[in-house]
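re the bet — no i am not wrong, look at it urself. input seq straight from the record:
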Amino acid sequence: MKTNKCLQLFLILSFFLFSNFFLFSSVTSPKYVFFFIGDGMGIPHVNLAESYLAAINDKVGVEKLTFTRFPVFGLSTTYAENRYITCSAAAGTALSTGSKTSINTIGLASDHHDTLFSIAYRAKQKGKKIGIISSVGINHATPAAFYAHQVSRNHYYEIALQATKSDFDVFACGGFIQPKGVNNDFKSAYDIAKENGYQVLNTNESIQNYNRKNEKVMFVSPNTLENNSMPYAIDRKNNSYSLHNFLEKSISILDNENGFFIMLESGKIDWAAHNNDAATVVHEVIDFDKSIKIAYDFYLQHPEETLIIITADHETGGLGLGYDKNGYKSNFSNLQFQKKSFETINQEVFQKYKTTNNISYQDFLSIGEEYFNISKTELSPSELQELETVYTSFNSSRSSNANISIEEINVFIKTYLDIFNHRASVAWTTHFHTGTPVGVWAIGYKSNEFTGNYDNTDIPKKLAKIMQLMP
C-alpha cells in the first residue's frame, strides 16, 4: 500500500512539474514590448523630479516614480562613432539598430553606404504590430531612427516619406516637420501617407472614436504647436492630448495574437533641458512617467508576456542638484511656482512688447512676479544687481527707434530663469548634450538581462535576442 501511495504521489508531482515546465517554456519571447526613450533624460533629471515630488509634500528625500520602482537598473554609455558627446540621430540609431554611427546620421553606417535596420523593422517582419509615438515631430531624429535611413537628420521631408512607406501600424505624434519640404513646394507628406493606406486623424473626436485594428493610422495631436510638437506638460490645457492618451489608444488598436512593439519618446525633456528650464523638465519627466504607468498596468495583466524598457539617448544640460551660493540647502519645492515653460513665457512677453521700442525697468521687474512668483521686494541685492546689469545693457545697445526683438526678450527671461533655478538649488553646466552615462530601467520577461554597465548599442542587441528577431 505504501508503495502504491508513493507511486501515486510521484506521478502527481511529476505531472504538476511537467505541466508547469511546459507552460513556462511555451513563452519563448515576449509578446508585448514597450521601449521608452526620454530624450535628454539623464539620471539627475529623474532624481530632480523625484526630489521635487518629495519636497512639495514637505519630505526630505525622493518620491519614487513608477519606473524607478522597477526591479532592474543598468547604466548605458551614449557616445557616437565619431564623437564622445552624441546627438539624437546617432544615439537614436544606436538604440534602434545596435550599431554606432556618425553625428546627424539616421539608420545608416557612418560611411553612409550600409543600411542599418531597426528592431522595430525586424519585429514587423516577425509579424508584430508596430507603434511609434513621440511628443515631437515623428520625423524628428529619435523616432526617425526606427524606420528611416538618411545621411542627415535634417532631411525632414525625405524622412517623412519613409514613414509613409514603412508599413508600421501606428504613428502618434505632434505631426511632420516640413511636411511639404524646406520651401513648402512639394506634395504634402500627409497626402502621401493617405495614398499609402494611412488614416490621418487630428481631431479629438476622430482620435477618440477610432477603434479599427486592421488599418494603418497616424494620430496627429489636435493641439500641435508651430514647431510640430505637443505642448509641454506645464503649458498643457485640460483638453489637450498627452503621450499617455496616445499610448492608451495605441495599445487598444495594436493588441493582437502576435503582440506588438511600441517605441514611445518623450522628446521635450531634451528641449526643456536645452533651455536649462528645470521646472519644465520636472513636469516632462513626471508626464513621461504617466505613460510608463499605462504600460506597467498592462504588464500587470500580462506579466509573463510583457517586457518594458526605459532609457535615454543622452543627457542634456549637465544638470546638477545643488548650487554653491546655497551651500547644502535645497529648495526644490520652489519649482512649483514657475507658471509656464521658458519658451511660452518668452513668446508671451515678446508678443506683449514687440511693437514698442522700450520696456520700463518696472515692467521688466514685473516679469519675475508674473511668471516666477519672484516679488520685486523680495529680490536680493545680488539678484537686483544681475537684473540691473541686463537691463542697462539692453538700453545701451539698441537703436532708439527699433522694435524690441525676440532675442532681447530671450535675454530678459533667461536672466529670471537663472535666478529662479538657483533659488531652487538647481544648476546647469551647458545648454547642450553631455557624455555622461544614462540609466536603464526594466521589468518583465527576461528583464534581468539589462542589469550592469554596457553601451547603448547593447540595448537593442539584448532586445533582439530576447525577442528572437532575425538579424
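see?? The chain is about 40% helix and 15% strand. told u. also The chain has two domains: 30-319+431-467, 324-427. so pay up
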